[in-house]
Amino acid sequence: MMSNLAVLPIIIPLIAGILLAFIHKKTILARNTAKLLSILNTGVAAYIFYYVYQNGTVTLETGGWEAPYGIVLVADLLAITLVLTTNIIGLACVFYAQHSLAEKKESFYFYSFFFLLITGVSGAFLTGDLFNLFVFFEVLLMASYALITLGGEKVQLRESIKYVLVNLFSSIVFVTTIAFLYSVLGTVNMAQMAERVQEVEQRGILTTIGILLFFVFGTKAALFPLYYWLPKPYTVPNPVISALFAALLTKVGVYSIIRMFTLVFVHQTSLTHDLFIWIAGFTLVFGVIGALSTDNIKLIIAYNIMPAVGFMIMGIGIYNQTAISGSVYYLVHDMIIKAALFLLVGAISYLAGTSDLRKMRGLINQYPLLGWLLFISAFVLAGVPPFSGFIGKLLILQGSFAEGEIIIAIIGLLSSLLILYSLMKIFVRGFWGEKDETIIVNKKAANAFTWPIAFLIFFSVLLGVGAELFYPVVEDISNDLLNPEIYIDSVFKE
Amino acid sequence: MEIIMSVVAGILFAAGIYNILQKQLLRIVIGTVILSNGAHLFIITMGKLKRGAPPVLEYGITEYADPLPQALVLTSIVISFGLTSLLLVLSYRAAQENETDNMEKLRGNHDE
Amino acid sequence: MLFAVLIPLIITLSIPFLSKFKGKIHPGVFVFFVPLGIFIYFVRYVGEGFSPVLESNPWIPSMNIFMDFYLDGLSLLFVLLISGIGALVTLYSIFYLHKSEKLAHFYVYLLMFMTAMLGVVLSDNIYVLYSFWELTSISSFLLIGFWNHREGSRYGAMKSMLITVFGGLSMLGGFILLHVITGTSSIQAMIADTDAILGSAYLPLILGLLLLGAFTKSAQFPFHIWLPDAMEAPTPVSAYLHSATMVKAGIFLVARFSPIFTGYQWFFIIVSGIGILTLCWASYMAVRQTDLKGILAFSTISQLGMIMAMLGFGTKAAVFAAVFHILNHATFKGSLFMIAGIIDHETGSRDIRKLGGLMTLMPISMTLALFGTFSMAGVPLPFLNGFYSKELFFENALDIGDTTLWIATMMKQVIPYLAVFGSIFTFVYSMYLFFGTFTGGQKLEELPKKPHEAPIGMLAAPIILVGGVIIIGLFPNLFNESFLAHAAEAISGEEVHKHIAFWHGLSPAFFMSLTVVALGTLLFVFRERWWKIYQTIPGSLSFNKVYNRLLSGLDVYSANLTNSYMNGSLRRYTALIISTIFLVTTTVMIGTGGFTWKTDDLAAITYPELLVGVLVSVAAIATIFAKDNVAAIIILGVAGYGQALLFVFYRAPDLALTQLAVETITVALLLLCFYHLPQLRTRTEGLGIKLTNGIIAIAFGSMMALIGISAHSSKWFSVISDYFLETSHDLGGGDNVVNVILVDMRGLDTLFEITVLGIAAFSIYTLIKLRRSKEGE
After folding, report:
1. Which partner for C520 in A145, C8, C156, C427 could form a disulfide, CB atoms 3.0-4.6 Å apart?
2. Domain B2-105 -> CATH class
């Protein structure tokens, strides 16, 4: 189905970003415009999601140049689901931002950068052209560089450099890899690549290039052993920004891996996908170990990004329908809960005046609601039913047991326990205990923080309790993913 | 020639990486510039070299160089330029705030 | 049944509202009716003609997750325990917890637990069962942490959660395997498909995983360590969760899956083995405790071990005995916990060393405790239910059934002795508990409060439970046919009928009982003489230490490990990343035979290009060796211009121009930056670091070159550019194909390329400006 709909989730935030750059000095106006546009964009994404779910994949050949020659946008169910999730998270962040950012930062193009980040992310999900994917990667990365440095604190600048450099390196390798692929396959269109790779059965150098590409995305997705750059820089910017990063950036990497390794490089799975299982295992283990290694609550959450990514890659590695459904479910779940958790620890450290667990106690007396939200999110993240994490984890584990991948499944189960432990540490040590009388309740800020977080956690609960509503969608997605012809046909038909 | 150019691009990569692994910020920035150059050289090389005229259509000429890699490199050069400038300013600011341009001194400790 | 299970959870929503009345009415009064109602709802099912009921509700049907509730004899037994004891505990809590406590929280957790526990015993779907299972752990965590300002409370809560959630996750693993093997998520359907499970290669794993779940929840050796620390919870909670119901969830799980595993000898070996071991160890350890609740906690552990052992025996009679003891244990242990709570409440202490001689001050409590402890000890009196279950235990320990594996046969020989050993210590701690508290000299000056008898409301619940002890003692067959037989049938899969008699001749079991009483009395009376033994066994050995070490080890080693590689050094990070990519990718390239070399389709080599190529390479390398920063920048410029020259050779005039412009600006910027930061110096590295850097750089560069050559040698397809050349003029309206591609065919790229530049510009502006304005402040 050909429709201009596919471009809207990219164009709206782009225009929003530009528009907001003009009114950046009028903070209040910018703030409210941003909220409004965010709602609009989420609404549009929701509509497209519904449309795609009803009518099948929507494609758009930009500039009227037919695929594979022009750039084609492909809003298949996976892409649009992720775009919708992105926008929901964006919405929560916009409402959280005004209380979290100093007005100074807000007026320095925060909202512009924010919308351009959304543009890049949505574009990355929607594009069907590998080089265009690179361009959208650069858009979102550039926006992220702008955001991570926003404020220019000493520590922030120091960590930003590491963040920028590692990503820069992986971008350079990315674009080189595209060149290699172009040489072998004569195209940069993903659907055509898939066709051509299939034709030559992924012979010769192709698997090598595929692995190189995997590492490019793996660096962005924070896989073992490429994630060193991630934890620390994610703790330095404002919580809203960390939340956006955690929810979106690594997940774009995961998405790209899912896309390329279910569409294009699927003819050597005994090699590539088995490698993924190993990497997933190490990512899980080192991630949770990292999460246990620190008393800095922001860092605890940052390390928790890795085990989640490990789970998703595990599902891809196992490569059967159940496991892939699980990965997709987990992906959506993790985007939401990671955003919620980063906002949450941001709020906690703001209100407690420290992010060091050793200096906190008894916060439940002052901020009961935040405490309970943290409590619930701990279980959401650890995958305890009936929350969203459980559904994805269950599917992945079912898939892996069914394939006889016992060890990785047991690693997955054990790491869930340690994930829970790492978060309950925050609850038990930070929220329980004697009341800390030195903390004066800042009710206004607490309330303002609570709503966006509760909004996101509501979705997490909904994704779990109401899994019957969403599971069929995810099953459709995994069905599409396991049958690349569906994607290819949707690009080349008409 | 393509093989030689691949080797040259490989050398650019190696030189770039070596620079990136240095501790001085300025060298690191230089490294990224060299790396991008290497990547661009790869792109051009992968589109076959010197097969026909520059891709500006003219009557009577049927053989042209592959225009797509050129377009990709153009896009990429511009993007790299943006990145380099940002990185440069960022390094400058970081070096200024932290009063050193030695990345090994910009480690930070685990618990802050 | 769905409603019955969920009603406590629904009621929790009204709790905050109810606590508005806190000034006038204790919210426990309202809550009391919830378990009572559930009890009345389910007690209707009791009767000889009972047959199992299945109620199906969808939840996530497309994932095979149904809220199916299956009420058979086993679940009925548990449901009545949960609701019955639940009602009594709530009644008790009204008097135990003062209105100044956070009662709303307390009752919310308690009701949450009720729903969870009812769900566990009624669910037929493994995933729903698991969900409720974890919810019991969560509510238990919250209840143990009710007084979370206490350090011990937090420690106990965390410990219980970690251990039980660990078990829960293992169990989930077992469940998923069962699901994968049988294709169903219904327990009853699995039981119908036993052969598939027993024939599976994963059988040992499944059994192990399920039993880990059961053993952790039911505090079996060596996972029992969480239960004593759980005693930090308010006493009603201890009586309810940590004695009567939650800790029996593990027992329930084993019972539930018994029909599948009974034929499998390892089931007997592990379940009975661990059960007996738990019985012996915990009853031995109970004698050493000084806290009343500590004694009761270890006592509970040992009794759970005994029930577990009987389930492991697997015979019809043993199963019946297990079921019978589940009921009996709930009555006497529940009442004893409540008495312990009363003593704590009235004297302000639970330390048995400070108590003593309370007989005259608290006569009613003393009488109740007398029945409770003597029943627990298994004293042969016809009005104590504990005696009957102990007798049945001995009988069954002597009659285990056929075994073929040598371990099983050996265990059959040993178990009767261990049973007697464990029971002797049970006798000793029961006596110690009773006499230590109520007889002997009073030490009132050591007690924080002046003791007196508890109010009648507080005594009501234990009186009812002790009533149960006596009634079952007097009429041991009262519930057999209508109730217990159904439960035993559900476990063993066959019809079970049993008649229990107080006197049944001079059987071996009777002599075992006599031995227990005789030796137990001796040991109790002369306890001072042999107490030193605890200094040798266990001495300083303790499983708590293992847990603490493990946990602090986890913290310390994770920190050490993580800090060892996450050291903040950018060089380290990039070096590791690049090396990894190199190693794996090269391995893959070699493994798949990826390297290809074809020379038939190459451009001719000409000297000018070659020269420029060499120039670019040399310049790039020279940046490394340039000592001076300015020199390095200039050399970089040379490399860039050389590259532009290459673009000219390669028929890319637009590129050459852009490259020239960009390179010029970059060099200018670099110099500008250098000008503003004059303190920049060249820094030299050690030789080792230089060498590693060099190796990494050369390795990665060569790899890229090789992949590039291979990619160029594998041109299998025609390129899409041909289309651009054909259509650029007619469709694109331009003759410069590169330009047409940029602005038209790939216009989207260009649009966002400009966006990237725009963001960079704004970001640079912000980086510079935001600081300025900060300085201005």
Report:
1. C427
2. mainly alpha
